[in-house]
Design goal:
alpha/beta, 3 helices, binds flavin mononucleotide, globular, 188 residues
Length: 188
């Protein structure tokens, strides 16, 4: 059973309500609350039609609109996958040059705009699922390691993941208006 960390003295939480200046980017968060990354899996996924898969839709916008008005200093997206063959799950958002389109760019812009609409800073979490790619997505995923995850859901990974897929997406993202980007490699 989970044990609570014992609290020995009272702690003043008021600092959480104070502004936080990020010096390198010169951005100011209104407070120190951050909406954590929570994979949404709300988008269309069709293996045979990747061009129309993983485009932010109205359900995702509605969700982020609620969070945008929830008083967070910073809002982080869930997984936004940089390679359509390495999703963490069907329904992930995808941004990749091979399936780039005006429709996808404007949907991501709308998402970024929505996230910032209540005054929060917006961070997009770029991810490559590596060895956590589900078998249903890809039987032979790439990963930085060839040690597989020991569960039935994940495929046996091959060793060979490059940061190039991240770099290409960063160039695309410059045109979309998130404040920052967080780069993640799941169980790489
Ligand atoms: C439903 C769910 C979805 C999550 N999705 C992501 C995700 O997309 N990206 C990520 O880095 N972490 C993800 N996480 C991890 C959380 O962001 C968080 O780091 C983790 O739950 C630990 O925080 P906690 O101790 O407050 O629960 C997820 C966690 C949960 C419970």
């Amino acid at each position: 059973m989970t044990q609570r960390v014992p609290v020995t003295s009272n702690v003043d939480p008021s600092i959480l309500g104070e502004k936080l200046n990020f010096q390198t980017s010169n951005r100011l968060a209104e407070n120190r609350f951050l909406k954590a990354a929570l994979t949404e899996k709300l988008l269309t996924y069709d293996k045979n039609n990747l061009k129309f898969s993983g485009i932010p839709n109205q359900r995702l916008i509605n969700l982020y609109s609620k969070w945008a008005h929830g008083g967070f200093g910073v809002i982080l997206t869930g997984n936004v996958i940089v390679d359509p063959n390495h999703l963490e799950a069907p329904g992930n958002a995808i941004i990749d040059k091979s399936i780039d389109s005006e429709e996808r760019r404007s949907a991501f812009k709308k998402l970024a705009y929505t996230m910032k609409s209540g005054g929060s800073l917006a961070i997009v979490q770029l991810n490559h699922a590596g060895r956590q790619t589900q078998k249903s997505i890809n039987e032979h995923p790439y990963s930085a390691s060839d040690v597989p995850l020991d569960t039935f859901k994940f495929a046996k990974n091959n060793k060979m993941m490059s940061i190039m897929s991240f770099m290409a997406q960063l160039r695309l993202l410059k045109k979309i208006l998130f404040n920052w980007c967080l780069i993640t490699g799941y169980f790489c």
